[in-house]
Design brief:
The complex is a heterodimer of chains A (52) and B (178). Chain A is mainly alpha-helical. Chain A has 2 helices and no strands. Chain B contains 6 helices and 2 strands. The chains are: A mainly alpha (52), B mainly alpha (178). At the A-B interface, α1 and α2 of A face α2, α3, α4 and α6 of B.
């Protein structure tokens, strides 16, 4: 679900960059990048199933 | 359109090719992307916002900076996935293309993007250019990338449904028979 939301946020950011205002696009970009890094950190802190 | 903006449009076609290639592997080979793979796709898509702003509002260092941030994040994500599979005997995730897995190619792609963006920023004369009206070449590139991102919205919704995505997905959750 979080990835669907991230792709949707990028699509909105791109439409804002192309058709809307520049400050709105910059804000949406910052929020989307922060959310993607937060998603990465969430997955990166999962325990790895190592077998050695 | 100036040379610099033409190169920005070409960059968008390059990003579209990467997103389309990843999507083709998903559809044709049936290899569903893992969470880290999707995060790398997301950074490739975010990489496109800078060139779009350049084409619409004129070239600015801040627009290139956005793409640099996305490329650095993408390189970090790809590096983690390379390191997860670096031990001898590890088969890696998914199939290989020309001997390297997709996440290794993604790392190469993000590093290449960083070098190309930095090279563009060296030629700072184009920052003084007035933004021209974008032509068909640029418009097609922009809508191609947006279309591929929308396809990824649909694909991830079908794959993950309304819950958390599986670490090693093998089927589209929303297409499973109840």
């Amino acid at each position: 679900m979080e990835f669907t939301a991230l792709f949707l946020a990028i699509a909105v950011t791109m439409i804002a960059a192309w058709r809307g205002s520049r400050p709105l696009a910059l804000t949406l970009f910052g929020l989307t990048l922060a959310a993607s890094v937060a998603t990465y950190l969430h997955h990166a802190t999962d325990a790895l199933k190592l077998s050695f | 359109m100036t040379l610099a903006l033409t190169l920005n449009a070409l960059g968008l076609y390059g990003i579209a090719a990467v997103l389309a290639g990843a999507f083709a592997a998903q559809i044709i080979l049936g290899e569903l992307p893992c969470p880290l793979c999707m995060l790398q796709r997301i950074q490739f898509a975010l990489l496109a916002v800078g060139p779009m702003l350049n084409l619409r509002h004129g070239a600015r260092p801040s627009h290139y900076a956005l793409s640099l941030l996305a490329a650095c994040a993408g390189a970090a994500f790809a590096t983690r996935q390379v390191l997860l599979h670096i031990l001898p005997g590890d088969a890696g995730y998914g199939s290989a293309l020309f001997g390297y897995h997709y996440y290794t190619w993604a790392l190469v792609g993000f590093c290449l993007a960083i070098v190309l963006i930095a090279t563009m920023m060296v030629f700072d004369r184009h920052f003084r250019d007035e933004p021209p009206a974008p032509g068909a070449f640029a418009s097609v590139a922009v809508w191609l990338v947006i279309g591929l991102v929308v396809l990824n919205v649909v694909s991830t919704l079908l794959m993950c449904g309304f819950g958390a995505c599986a670490d090693d997905p093998v089927a589209y959750e929303m297409l499973k028979r109840r």
